[in-house]
Write the structure tokens for this entry.
Amino acid sequence: MSRTVSIFYHASIIAVSFVCGVILFHIIGGPNAEPFISFIEPRLTNGDRHSLFRLVLPVAVSIALVLLLATHSVLKVLVRVTVAIRATFFGFSSVFLLQKLEAFWVYTIWWFPFQLIYCILLLNLCNLLVPAWSKRKIGKMIHGRTILLNFIVFFIIIVAEFIVISYVLN
């Protein structure tokens, strides 16, 4: 029962945050959103998606924020907020890409699947470091192999995203 509640809880975080990003885009408007999107994720506004630095930086910043917030006892409540903010930007930028008609394939092949996987992996990392509802207490030692496996999956997804950007979208 606990696992079902946790899955529903995490899926709700992603879904509600994504919808909030869509609503935020409609409130701000397309022309006003482009400078914000180009500041956070410049790969969406200009055609240069091949930079490895631009590929790794958003993921690394999200992971670093989750790790930083999970290590402090007062800030542990904000761990899932990091993922919610990322999912909100995911929804915000998805509407931006769908609004541009020439970016439909970029959205369906690259942006949507990889950002969804990153949000799920970040929530998994959050659940490993700061469990939502389980019998394991916060701060109890977990196996390093589990966290290492999560980072290996992050690396595999980053490599897959680089391959899709470099070879499929050209």
Remarks:
- The CA atoms of residues 26 and 95 lie 9 Å apart.
- Residues 2-28 form the longest helix (27 residues).
- The mean pLDDT is 84.
